[in-house]
């Protein structure tokens, strides 16, 4: 999970130090790029990995998201938007693009291959939970998948999600609720596989 | 599209799954990824703008407007020459002035020294 310091920096009230670094980068400051990369890449990678359950794909998304950050730097206007908000949006969009492509592939076809050993149950209940959730998210409409992941995987508040998705807080609540119901329905048949009891 | 409302147990299972995934350790960015991102940043880094030229002092601007030090030297030479010609004009200058402007003469336009015969 994200550190408390990074979470605090993402609140709308805190000064956007990332924005100041981005402006410095746009002015040719090479060290600002390194600082931004060290600060932002772990969070972008984590977000992408939670959505995609595939580290190689998550790394590609992280690189693409950071590339878009470098490209937009000269046009960045400090105070109009927060870098963290912008980056959450870009990462979520890149991930849902990839999830959408997975919809054309049957879920069984992309399930993790499991070897025939005693650790099969552990594999299913460990890594496969992440994969099962990613597969289920892929079956949702993009906006629902984004709202659910930002709320329940990234732990963001509804106002922050509203800013990221450029919608009202009420719309976030609606998307999240519908998304969760849809996810529960998709995953209902996989409880045993996921290691959760009915109790 | 109609959707079967999930049971409480199914929603609880989903919450547990979401909490599990959210609480899982974050992946550590590989050195290769960081190197790629840094290379992208360097390739896209805008060229630093040239520092603004320091404002020049007023008299320097004035001198530059005139044409700089060579022009100022020429003006100084012309000033000295003019002063010398004024203080000690060569005879050729007097003669040339006389030819151009003529001799200095006093002219009594009325032809009278005491037109109203006030002097007695």
Automatic annotation (TrEMBL), chain A:
Xref: CDD domains: Sigma70_r4
- Residue ranges of the RNA polymerase sigma factor 70 region 4 type domain? 131-183
Q: Name one Pfam family in it.
A: Sigma70_r4_2
A GO molecular-function annotation: DNA binding
InterPro entries in the record: RNA_pol_sigma-70-like, RNA_pol_sigma-70_dom, RNA_pol_sigma70_r2, RNA_pol_sigma70_r4_t2, RNA_pol_sigma_r2, RNA_pol_sigma_r3/r4-like, WH-like_DNA-bd_sf
What are the entry keywords? DNA-binding, Sigma factor, Transcription, Transcription regulation
What domain of life does the UniProt record list for this protein's source? Bacteria
Q: Which GO terms describe its biological process?
A: DNA-templated transcription initiation
RNA polymerase sigma-70 region domain: residues covered? 39-103
Q: Which Gene3D superfamilies match?
A: 1.10.1740.10, Winged helix-like DNA-binding domain superfamily/Winged helix DNA-binding domain
Q: Which family does it belong to?
A: Belongs to the sigma-70 factor family. ECF subfamily.
| Protein name per UniProt | ECF RNA polymerase sigma factor SigE
Automatic annotation (TrEMBL), chain B:
User: Could you tell me which species this protein originates from?
Assistant: Flavimaricola marinus
Q: What is this protein called?
A: Dihydroorotate dehydrogenase
The organism's lineage is: Bacteria, Pseudomonadati, Pseudomonadota, Alphaproteobacteria, Rhodobacterales
